[in-house]
């Protein structure tokens, strides 16, 4: 008998999942597998916050598959070998997956297609996690875009992203091995994805609902609320003005096609401009993946090679720890870093301020910040995380100008004037008035337990500008 093997990766959903839709249409016994692969060459090990999310996302996916008549097989190790072994165990003649765009992952996938062809197994991949695949959006000369605005303009000038696929009502019965048994699946708890000693995940659990249902609930809340005023609301960290869909997109619990067309259904005709701004944020995600596709070492090498000469200053251990732990003495930076530690997420405007402080006020190499966010963000992915850090540092594509140095005091006064966000994550400042909370070192009354600034903003700004100017001058 023929059988189908579907390999899920960063597409942990039933809705708008082309590989599962094709498997349902085939109707042959089905094996659905997730492989935890941190051994294949070049594959980056997952950070701690991502591992926490992955555990709960896989648990939710397993329950959803079971409700649809299927099951989830879990295996750990080098993906190519595991997929080959599982195909042999289940006598699969069809292998299906949704495409990935990082170089190590593409190498694994290409190798498996070559192997499958030699074995007489049909191997088919699908577009599922990007609306505009990197090789389809090119400049007039045929190369990749290096600036976001013309990239996004080219995307939206083309055909509308395809309509999302409905989730299969039922999936074919699970495939069995030659002796009639179900393929072995490793217990999820044995993977050790959850923190144990200590368990720092309480804030994450209180903030997020990993899984497809949680993703769709987030989307519904967004379109019914913040979406219509996203253009202004997204800049105010003390209100729920953003979608918070980024970790769900990171794991593919919801597809960008579903988000795009849900917005279309809710807001057209007469869509407010804010919805277009949010769509452009989806576009930035697509742009980051094109950057990674063209530059596989985006997390370790400067996109702009002239930055190889930049005079980064290694921060002292105390300075780096103060930044990581939210103890710099600058409330907006500290509130953001504590929000990150508590919830695995940080408001985007605050991310920019916190990142700017590290790479410009401390002159620390952007890779230090990228590595910290990789370990602590629930939405850290291989494209957006390094691309955004390089944008702030000035070393990336379409990067922030070298002279743009976020002043955390100015930023908090402008976007958190009443100090609502600051007080939420810095209880030491709760007693300060709305003026003093932004600059507690100037306050008449003390803020017990809150540190003095670790550096002077004016002095470090001048140092950064001089360092960037030397790079510019060659």
From TrEMBL:
Keywords, sorted A to Z: Chromophore, FAD, Flavoprotein
Keyword Flavoprotein applies: yes
PROSITE patterns reported for this sequence: DNA_PHOTOLYASES_1_1, PHR_CRY_ALPHA_BETA
Family: Belongs to the DNA photolyase family.
Cofactor (UniProt): FAD
Location of the Photolyase/cryptochrome alpha/beta domain: 2-131
Entry protein name: Deoxyribodipyrimidine photo-lyase
